[in-house]
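Archive entry: two folds, one per protein. Generate the first.
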Amino acid sequence: MKIVIMAGGKGTRIWPRSADDLPKQFLPFLSEQSLIQETVDRFRGFVPSSRLFIALPQRYLPIARQQLPDIPPHMLIVEPEQKDTAACVALAAFRFLQAGDDEPVAFIPSDQYVGDKEALLTSLTAAEKTAMTLDAIVTLGIMPTRPDSSYGYLLTSAAAAADAVPAETRQVARFVEKPSAERARELISDPNVYWNSGIIVARPATLRRSIELHEPAIWDCLTLHPHDPAAAYAGMPKLSIDHAVMERAEKIYCIPVECGWDDVGSWTSLPRHTALDNDGNAIRGDAELIRSAGNIVYVEGGPALIIGVNDLIVASTSSGLLICPKSEEPRLKSWLSSRK
């Protein structure tokens, strides 16, 4: 198995801590290491260094070289521009097939937290076997611990997919994209429902067939410009791999996993990894809160004094200042997009 760590996101939901020129995957959130450094370390020893790749846009190449100096240049899959995960997956699969290599590949987001590494690695091994046996795309489904409307969900079949695959293998019946809070509560009451981890495992040839079938413009661009990624990317649609393929494919399989997983994708994820004060405030930086409860505060520089407010996100960095109710956080990404 090969590992491709996808590091192309902009991390807009953690603005202003994460910005276009230095997105969240290259920032330390949960330790002294950046998220991508933690992700790379997670797979050292699981696969040989010759099978550990980083896929990232050209603009982030200098940061990656600085933070991951031991990753050789030929292990970097460089995208000429940011086109979301469908283009990233297609480019990696295309490169491997160009080299005559159809070994299964696990595509891993670079900005996720995993509390139980061994459980994750065991599930990836099971996913590899299912992908090979059924010639299919396999995703990891995270057993939900709360009704969270910021995640996508997988509805799976109760029966195992086939006798020849790991017993935990399930078939995905439907994808549910970021449901309402009420719908999320309904979903987690079903034992056959999992969070969508965004982690997929498949052979490059399997991915090629699926992309050619469901979003042919992406693969056609690579075929027309096999040695010119910039020209290929110029004509590609900007789509996630979920929208381009996963939600439209006839058969997608799932390996459930409990590994202490968390998508560190928003300010509201911070309290799950930060000790709270007596009033339930999550505070990073030089900030004092008075008669304030349930806030998420991130301050660079400082000091900051916050008095008499509840359930706010307050984030101050050299890139900007954010003050909003926690309930309004889902609008942050669209608001930032509208500014451009």
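Generate the second and append.
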Amino acid sequence: MDDSSLKALLEHLPVFWWEVDDLWQVLERGGGAFADTDTAQRFLDRMRQELAAPAKPLGEGRCQARFDDRTFDVSWPIEEGEVHNRRCGLAVEVDARASAPRRYAAFAELVDLAPAAAFIRDCDGRYLWANHAYAHLYGTAPEHVVGKCIEDFDTPADAGQFRALDQEILTRGTAVRHTLGYRRQDGSAGRAVGHRFPVRENGQTCVAGIYVDVTDQLRATVQRQEAEENLRALRDHSGLPCALLSANGRVIEASAAAAEVFRLNMSDLVGRRAHTLLAPEPDLDRLHRRWNGLIARRVRRVETSAVLVDSRGLQRRAQLHLTTIGHSAGRARHVWAVVTHQSLAHEAHPALTAAQIRILSLLAEGSSNGDIATSLKLSRQTVDYHLSRLRELLDAATRPALVARAYVLGILAPRAWPPRSATAAHPLSAV
């Protein structure tokens, strides 16, 4: 092998050679140990100090030197070179991985410990380099991958697929981004997304690749889609009016039953502000305070009531269950609103007084007019007046009809005994 062939070979190996004069002025140098001339010059400056007084002699004409967290065995002739006033030297990196090409040192150092799996293979499918993440896919270490072929790790079907992809890169000469499937060590199917691209190594075109395993991400995505589909099916087929609201009270999505309650098309309901679907009443202030508590995450769930108004202006009192979504954010971003009970739709009527509601609750309990008068410390005539007025307001001809209307219109709580107002702040309070 002549000098030019030897120098060309050393350009691809983790070695560094040099020729200097007796004043250590560089005459010639080369090798693949360093990626740039500045690093090579710093190494020569270090060697001038080491060779003047070797600190770690390994034998005649040799020493070991540390440089940039790398260890080199350095050797030089005892006598001066055949050419007068020339000194020659050779530095070989100790434990250098022959598989890590110095031309791609930056690439190798960048991705060696990266979570993305990366490799370099020659045109015959033999591994020249692999990082830890790639070796981990096969349950081994990088040094056990280098020098092996694709078939040593993958099934024949997968190996054929990977060789075909390599040949595509070698033929096209350009990078390709794609998703591929493979068989994991546990036998399950895996998915990875990344790039394959051509690189030059030792005078030949090779294939490099870098991939991210997205198997778990895809599985989580599928599970989320299934959960959303199940929730949508439950929402649409349960018959319960429900809606997902944003923090500022706008309808994001809703069930068909909710659209039916408000007599709106789904397209008209979604995007509407929730307060436009509620009748103005004194209880709205309390509902607003409880909503703010939900959004601020002071509470997670709220059960309350409100009067809903449909597109025809008819009203109905509904029992609302409000629940925040998510756990991590400082403020809730979404709230599910579900209606579990609702009264009969009716025309708006004047708000009843506390005394009128108390009379209705006692009437529903079975009290006579005299009992009601005694309980409320009212005259019999005053109770008779209130009952007459209530029959007029609620369009009820008899006492039983008056009680029934009080329940179907949502004035009295349908699940409480003794009877009490549907808006009572406390279970033991009548109004």
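Annotation attached to the second fold: The first helix runs from residue 3 to 10. The CA atoms of residues 359 and 376 lie 8 Å apart.
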